[in-house]
Amino acid sequence: MVEYVSKFILGGLIIVFVSYLSKQGDSVFAGIIAIAPIITLISFFIVGNESGSETLKNVVYSSIVYLPLTLIYLFSIYLLLRNTGIHSNLILIISFIAWLICAYGLMNIEN
Protein backbone atom coordinates (compact mmCIF):
# COMPACT_ATOMS: atom_id res chain seq x y z
CA MET A 1 0.00 0.00 0.00
CA VAL A 2 2.88 2.37 0.78
CA GLU A 3 4.21 2.00 -2.75
CA TYR A 4 0.88 3.17 -4.22
CA VAL A 5 0.68 6.14 -1.87
CA SER A 6 4.25 7.19 -2.71
CA LYS A 7 3.53 6.96 -6.45
CA PHE A 8 0.35 9.00 -5.94
CA ILE A 9 2.23 11.68 -3.99
CA LEU A 10 5.02 11.87 -6.57
CA GLY A 11 2.53 12.40 -9.40
CA GLY A 12 0.69 15.00 -7.36
CA LEU A 13 3.90 16.90 -6.65
CA ILE A 14 4.58 17.21 -10.36
CA ILE A 15 1.07 18.52 -11.01
CA VAL A 16 1.39 21.05 -8.17
CA PHE A 17 4.77 22.19 -9.54
CA VAL A 18 3.31 22.79 -13.02
CA SER A 19 0.38 24.66 -11.50
CA TYR A 20 2.73 26.79 -9.40
CA LEU A 21 4.87 27.69 -12.41
CA SER A 22 1.86 28.68 -14.50
CA LYS A 23 0.52 30.90 -11.70
CA GLN A 24 3.91 32.59 -11.47
CA GLY A 25 3.60 33.57 -15.13
CA ASP A 26 6.18 31.11 -16.42
CA SER A 27 3.84 29.32 -18.81
CA VAL A 28 6.66 28.27 -21.16
CA PHE A 29 8.55 26.41 -18.42
CA ALA A 30 5.28 25.03 -17.05
CA GLY A 31 4.46 23.70 -20.53
CA ILE A 32 7.89 22.13 -20.84
CA ILE A 33 7.54 20.41 -17.47
CA ALA A 34 3.97 19.33 -18.28
CA ILE A 35 5.04 17.66 -21.53
CA ALA A 36 8.43 16.43 -20.31
CA PRO A 37 8.57 12.68 -20.00
CA ILE A 38 8.85 12.86 -16.21
CA ILE A 39 5.77 10.76 -15.54
CA THR A 40 6.76 8.48 -18.41
CA LEU A 41 10.26 8.09 -16.99
CA ILE A 42 8.94 7.28 -13.54
CA SER A 43 6.35 4.88 -14.96
CA PHE A 44 8.95 3.11 -17.08
CA PHE A 45 11.31 2.88 -14.11
CA ILE A 46 8.61 1.31 -11.96
CA VAL A 47 7.45 -1.11 -14.69
CA GLY A 48 11.05 -2.15 -15.41
CA ASN A 49 11.80 -2.76 -11.75
CA GLU A 50 8.54 -4.52 -10.94
CA SER A 51 7.90 -6.47 -14.15
CA GLY A 52 11.20 -6.74 -15.98
CA SER A 53 12.72 -5.66 -19.26
CA GLU A 54 10.39 -7.63 -21.53
CA THR A 55 7.29 -5.99 -20.09
CA LEU A 56 9.00 -2.60 -20.21
CA LYS A 57 9.83 -3.16 -23.88
CA ASN A 58 6.14 -3.85 -24.61
CA VAL A 59 5.01 -0.79 -22.65
CA VAL A 60 7.49 1.43 -24.52
CA TYR A 61 6.32 0.03 -27.86
CA SER A 62 2.69 0.77 -26.98
CA SER A 63 3.66 4.29 -25.94
CA ILE A 64 5.29 4.84 -29.34
CA VAL A 65 2.22 3.52 -31.18
CA TYR A 66 -0.14 5.82 -29.24
CA LEU A 67 2.09 8.92 -29.38
CA PRO A 68 0.37 10.34 -32.51
CA LEU A 69 -2.93 10.35 -30.58
CA THR A 70 -1.33 12.53 -27.92
CA LEU A 71 -0.18 14.98 -30.58
CA ILE A 72 -3.69 15.11 -32.03
CA TYR A 73 -5.05 15.67 -28.51
CA LEU A 74 -2.69 18.59 -27.91
CA PHE A 75 -3.38 20.18 -31.31
CA SER A 76 -7.13 19.86 -30.80
CA ILE A 77 -6.90 21.65 -27.45
CA TYR A 78 -4.80 24.42 -28.95
CA LEU A 79 -7.03 24.90 -31.99
CA LEU A 80 -10.25 24.84 -29.99
CA LEU A 81 -8.86 27.34 -27.49
CA ARG A 82 -7.67 29.61 -30.28
CA ASN A 83 -10.73 29.41 -32.52
CA THR A 84 -13.76 28.99 -30.25
CA GLY A 85 -15.26 30.68 -27.25
CA ILE A 86 -15.81 27.38 -25.45
CA HIS A 87 -14.70 27.32 -21.80
CA SER A 88 -11.23 25.80 -21.42
CA ASN A 89 -12.39 23.05 -19.03
CA LEU A 90 -14.99 21.89 -21.54
CA ILE A 91 -12.38 21.90 -24.31
CA LEU A 92 -10.10 19.72 -22.18
CA ILE A 93 -12.92 17.27 -21.51
CA ILE A 94 -14.00 17.16 -25.16
CA SER A 95 -10.43 16.63 -26.35
CA PHE A 96 -9.82 13.90 -23.77
CA ILE A 97 -13.02 12.07 -24.72
CA ALA A 98 -11.99 12.28 -28.39
CA TRP A 99 -8.58 10.88 -27.43
CA LEU A 100 -10.22 8.01 -25.54
CA ILE A 101 -12.42 7.16 -28.52
CA CYS A 102 -9.44 7.22 -30.90
CA ALA A 103 -7.31 5.15 -28.51
CA TYR A 104 -10.11 2.58 -28.18
CA GLY A 105 -10.43 2.47 -31.96
CA LEU A 106 -6.69 2.01 -32.42
CA MET A 107 -6.66 -0.72 -29.79
CA ASN A 108 -9.38 -2.58 -31.70
CA ILE A 109 -7.51 -2.18 -34.99
CA GLU A 110 -4.35 -3.63 -33.45
CA ASN A 111 -6.20 -6.65 -32.06
Describe the structure.
This protein is mainly α. The chain has a domain at 53-111. The protein is 89% helix and 0% strand. The protein contains five helices and no strands. The radius of gyration is 16 Å and the shape is globular. It starts with a helix and ends with a helix.
> What can be said about the biggest beta sheet?
none
Order of helices and strands: HHHHH
What does the overall shape look like?
globular
Give the termini distance in whole angstroms: 33 Å
Mean pLDDT: 86
What is the total tally of β strands? 0
Helix content: over 70%
Helix-strand category: mainly alpha
Radius of gyration: 16 Å
Number of helices: 5
Q: Low-confidence runs (pLDDT<50, min 5 residues)?
A: none
What share of the residues does DSSP label as strand, in percent?
under 5%
List keywords for this structure.
111 residues; 5 helices; 0% strand; globular
Layout of helices and strands:
Blueprint (H helix, E strand, L loop, with lengths): L1 H22 L3 H9 L2 H14 L1 H31 L4 H23 L1
